[in-house]
């Protein structure tokens, strides 16, 4: 029976139900850990913020520090700040929605890519389409699974927010529904991206680029209080004004309309492209490779240059954004209670240096993320079959896939340096001493970055199928660096992060011994990684 006969008899959605059950089963761990991570973090944060800002006076004092354009761009519209005194829920939503919304978007960008374009790339979809299923069934199943997961995530977040004062059940439901809307919109946009691009990496890049633009537009609209927020799916979620007197559901109708239009576009495009190809044809390459591409390592650097440029632009913008906040750190501190200042305090004589220390650490975590992504690219090349072609040529394991370690280290080091330059340029205000301390502090982070990436590489070498290990390691370091003080994590758990051993420079002196030890740990882990690659079989499946 041909595909045309199947579709004539059963329709292009034939087999959607079976594919939905199949995709749910194979994605169950992915969905569980992402949902547990986002919802669990929200459940932990609710009581912490409620305890820190118990009285209306404390919230009103904090509101005075959050009204600057720089702070609004990193949190949300002014309407939330105006409601701080009356509602702890408004403060919570204002501080959380941008970041939890962004993580929700990442979750669904990766989910839809792996169930659509990535499956075509690995030929899994080819096997599925040899069965009596319609042409649109796999896309429909991926979108239905995404919608169901978004509803579950939204329900858990609504439950987490239900105990906040200053609102009712409708406010909590609106908070959860805002995240559901973000998930569905980005799932639909990624479905379109999967039809336009010819591989999973490009589709993911399109989806994350849409997220970056969404965060940028939301921040710009919040800072200026203008219409730019309406260009952003995250902005639509913020414009619901949950837990404020102006809260309303109607901005989510915009999200629903855009999601519906994107789904229609994706279903239209999937019928107008060849299987395994994207709507955008790939550029014709050179007939002969350049001299610099005559080794596996050079090829790896060439294949990962897109991640390098993405990292450079992202961390530069992040550094400049943090720099705009750093300039007003001391004024920001005036509205904080002693307990709140203690959480932000990283030592030293000024809160400005404490802020600089925190921003430097966060920049380093983001830079490390791009290194982790490079290592993940090595695993992908191994599984989709392209690595098999390289492995069949006369190359050593240290040349491929071992070349992804130096590529990851270079990527993370470069992006961290760019972030430091952006932070120094945006936050020093001509103070050469402060700029110098920021740049030195940026360099101090490198041994911890290298240790994290070396661990991820060792995990790739010894446990290639346990991809969740690299994300667990990176997520834990982010949690320790950014939220460790807020959540009052135990010392032993924070010590699992290499960044916890660096000291708090420039707020305090850094430990030279720690830098040496972390560099040695990175070297040992890298050696273990190369040993693992030599001992294990490559998995071309």
Automatic annotation (TrEMBL):
Signal peptide: none annotated. The chain crosses the membrane at residues 29-50, 96-116, 137-160, 172-194, 206-228, 248-270, 307-329, 353-376, 404-426, 438-464, 471-490, 510-533. It comes from the Bacteria. Keywords: Membrane, Transmembrane, Transmembrane helix. This is ABC-2 type transport system permease protein. It comes from Glycomyces sambucus.
């Amino acid at each position: 029976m041909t595909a045309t006969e199947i579709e004539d008899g059963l329709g292009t959605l034939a087999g959607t139900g079976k594919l939905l059950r199949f995709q749910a089963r194979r994605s169950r761990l992915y969905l569980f850990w992402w949902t547990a991570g986002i919802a669990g973090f929200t459940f932990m944060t609710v009581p912490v913020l409620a305890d820190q800002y118990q009285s209306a006076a404390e919230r009103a004092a904090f509101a005075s520090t959050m009204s600057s354009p720089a702070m609004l761009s990193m949190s949300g519209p002014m309407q939330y700040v105006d409601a701080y005194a009356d509602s702890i829920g408004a403060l919570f939503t204002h501080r959380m929605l941008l970041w939890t919304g962004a993580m929700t978007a990442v979750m669904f960008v990766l989910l839809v890519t792996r169930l659509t374009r990535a499956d075509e790339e690995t030929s899994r979809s080819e096997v599925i389409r040899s069965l009596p299923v319609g042409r649109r069934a796999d896309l429909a199943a991926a979108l239905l699974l995404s919608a169901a997961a978004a509803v579950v995530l939204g329900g858990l977040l609504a439950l987490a927010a239900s105990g906040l004062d200053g609102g009712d059940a409708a406010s909590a439901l609106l908070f959860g529904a805002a995240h559901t809307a973000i998930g569905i919109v980005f799932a639909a946009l990624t479905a379109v991206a999967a039809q336009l691009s010819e591989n999973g990496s490009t589709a993911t890049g399109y989806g994350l680029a849409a997220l970056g633009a969404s965060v940028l537009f939301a921040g710009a609209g919040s800072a200026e209080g203008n219409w730019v927020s309406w260009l952003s799916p995250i902005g639509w979620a913020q414009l619901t004004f949950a837990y404020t007197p102006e809260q309303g559901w109607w901005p989510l109708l915009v999200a629903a309309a855009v999601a519906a239009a994107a789904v229609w576009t994706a279903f239209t495009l999937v019928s107008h492209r060849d299987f395994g190809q994207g709507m955008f044809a790939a550029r014709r390459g050179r007939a002969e490779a350049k001299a610099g591409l005559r080794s596996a390592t050079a090829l790896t650097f060439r294949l990962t240059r897109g991640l390098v440029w993405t990292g450079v632009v992202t961390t530069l913008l992040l550094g400049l954004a943090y720099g705009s906040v750093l300039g007003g750190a001391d004024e920001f501190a005036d509205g904080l209670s002693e307990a709140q200042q203690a959480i932000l305090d990283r030592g030293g004589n000024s809160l400005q240096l404490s802020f600089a220390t925190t921003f430097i650490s966060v920049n380093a975590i983001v830079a490390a993320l791009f290194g982790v992504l490079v290592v993940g690219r090595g695993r992908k090349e191994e599984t989709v079959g392209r690595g098999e072609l390289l492995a069949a040529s006369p190359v050593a394991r240290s040349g491929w896939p071992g070349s992804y370690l130096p590529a990851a280290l270079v990527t993370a080091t470069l992006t961290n340096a760019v972030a430091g330059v952006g932070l120094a340029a945006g936050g020093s205000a001509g103070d050469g001493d402060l700029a110098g301390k920021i740049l030195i502090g940026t360099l101090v982070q490198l041994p911890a970055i290298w240790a994290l990436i070396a661990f991820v590489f060792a995990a790739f070498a010894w446990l290639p199928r346990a991809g969740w290990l690299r994300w667990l390691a990176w997520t834990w370091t982010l949690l320790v660096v950014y939220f460790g003080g807020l959540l009052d994590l135990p010392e032993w758990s924070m010590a699992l992060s290499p960044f916890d051993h660096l000291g708090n420079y420039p707020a305090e002196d850094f430990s030279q011994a720690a830098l040496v030890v972390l560099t040695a740990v990175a070297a040992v882990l890298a050696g273990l990684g190369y040993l693992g690659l030599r001992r294990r079989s490559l998995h071309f499946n």
